[in-house]
Amino acid sequence: MKDLKILIVEDERILAEDLKETLLELGYNVAGNVGSGEEAVELASKTEIDLALMDIKLEGEMDGVSTAEALRDRFDIPVIYLTAFSDDALLQKAKKTEPFGYVIKPYRASEIKSVIEMALFKIEVERKRKESYKNLASEAQDRANKLVKMDTTLKTLMEYRENEKNEVIRNVAKNLNDRVIPHFDTIRMRWPNKELNNLLDALTTTLREIAKPSENTLSDSINLTPMECRVVDLIRQGRTSKEISSLLGITVRGVTFHRGNIRKKLGIQNKKINLKASLSR
């Protein structure tokens, strides 16, 4: 990690040169050695810098804290403060810039090395954290894109299946209207019988309902049983309970029972609402 580039920001030039020599002896690269915050910001805009050693009390318009803040916010450069002061107010202000450490003047080479190595470790941890977050964000985006594609594919498939289903319904409707229902008139003419005609009328109505290419039938929407469906068809024709019982081969009491279940499923039980009118909506 000693190949990382370190910037020195120290307005006491003798101390700055001494620090530079110390860093070089320790095997670190010195990216720059400047005496003001303005120079530090200018150099950071032109040079790759991985870490700054910052005098907390700089002369000029930009002190060490404001310079550290600028380096962090604009260039994402972490800072280690160099200070001979123990001013609590100043240290509290410095903490807001999230420094990676402090070195108290006068310092020894071993102290410099320890603080820098700890800072570089933190930098590496932070780099890996950001890289991991970036990878997770990228993976999440990839999965989101795949979900969008899957959703689009599923919608296309469902639309295809719906079109296919409607085509089948249209074909069934055409066959019923063209090939089945017309024969009922022939049967009526050849075998005139009131009971048979009533049955044929019921069948005709039922088949015409089937022939309607409706996407949502009443039987689907309120979950009618097969017998309830037959009762519903006959009620729609205006048949009485006695006629329905005769056509379906059940008792009038049975018809009344089915009527009650149908009203319950429609949500109109115990209400003065005509069942035929409700079924015709």
Automatic annotation (TrEMBL):
Coiled coil stretches, renumbered: 123-150
Top-level division of the source organism's lineage: Bacteria
4-aspartylphosphate: residues carrying this PTM: 55
Gene Ontology BP annotations: phosphorelay signal transduction system; regulation of DNA-templated transcription
Domain Response regulatory: 5-120
InterPro entries assigned: CheY-like_superfamily (IPR011006), Sig_transdc_resp-reg_C-effctor (IPR016032), Sig_transdc_resp-reg_receiver (IPR001789), Tscrpt_reg_LuxR_C (IPR000792), WalR-like (IPR039420), WH-like_DNA-bd_sf (IPR036388)
HTH luxR-type domain: residues covered: 217-281
Keywords: Coiled coil, DNA-binding, Phosphoprotein
Keyword Ligase belongs to the record: no
Keyword Coiled coil applies: yes
GO molecular function, one term: DNA binding
Name assigned to this protein: DNA-binding response regulator
